[in-house]
Specification:
By secondary structure, the chain is an alpha/beta fold. The protein is 43% helix and 20% strand.
Length: 229
């Protein structure tokens, strides 16, 4: 797997490069936004890790120019910016995911691998993203980016949490089996255990606790989404 890391902080750049190379990946680095697009086009990486605050050209401008040039490489935004607006803008421009600094390296690696798998197998991506951008009780999932919003505010969800929420949001009030949800949330991951869906469900419940919507477990049937009484 070849990664392009666009990051101007030399300490962060070195740490990430060494970490991913120890995991058997090839890492190209760039610390200047004005050179990033040319390197991206020349190297054709499997995934791009993109910082937003870059010298020369801002990270969002790099992403916008790359998408305009027809580059479809999966992109994870790495940002210290705390505003939701920047993250929403990044997703709307064409980012596939984002992680706020500081972040866990193991989680970052897992997200990179998941994005590359989905990019290589568009059938799995289509299965995860609901075809008609479901909306219910203030929750709304975007078809193109897969981002989920509550009352037009982006929910900060890990990719697997978002995949689970999109799946149950497609059929609110109807039970979906754990087996089917496992297929959607862990596509092609033979090493994952079926019980892992319970961990994702537990985390998702905490993420959506403020929305007035509940993820309910039905013994022997699976999960369903319902409005809180």
């Amino acid at each position: 797997m070849k990664l392009l890391l666009i990051e101007d902080n030399l300490t962060m750049q070195t740490t990430l490069q060494r970490s991913f190379e120890r995991r058997g990946m090839q890492v190209l680095t760039c610390g200047d936004g004005s050179r990033a697009l040319a390197l991206w086009q020349a190297s054709l990486p499997d995934a791009v890790l993109l910082d937003l605050s870059l010298p020369g050209v801002d990270g969002l401008e790099v992403l916008s120019a790359a998408r305009a040039a027809g580059l479809t490489t999966p992109v994870i935004i790495l940002t210290a910016r705390g505003t939701v607006g920047d993250r929403i803008l990044g997703l709307n421009i064409g980012a596939d995911d984002y992680m706020a600094k500081p972040f866990d390296l193991d989680e970052l690696e897992a997200r990179v691998k998941a994005l590359v798998r989905r990019s290589a197998n568009p059938v799995d991506s289509a299965a995860i993203a609901a075809p008609h951008a479901p909306a219910w009780c203030g929750l709304h999932a975007e078809h193109d980016s897969g981002a989920v919003y509550f009352q037009n505010q982006l929910l900060e969800l890990a990719p697997r949490e978002a995949a689970l929420l999109r799946a149950v949001l497609a059929r609110p009030g109807h039970a979906i089996s754990k087996e089917r949800l496992f297929e959607l949330v862990f596509p092609g991951e033979s090493q994952a255990q079926p019980e892992a869906i319970e961990v994702v469900a537990y985390r998702l419940r905490k993420r959506i606790a403020h929305t007035g919507v509940q993820l309910v477990t039905l013994r022997g049937l699976g999960y369903l989404l319902k409005a809180s009484p």
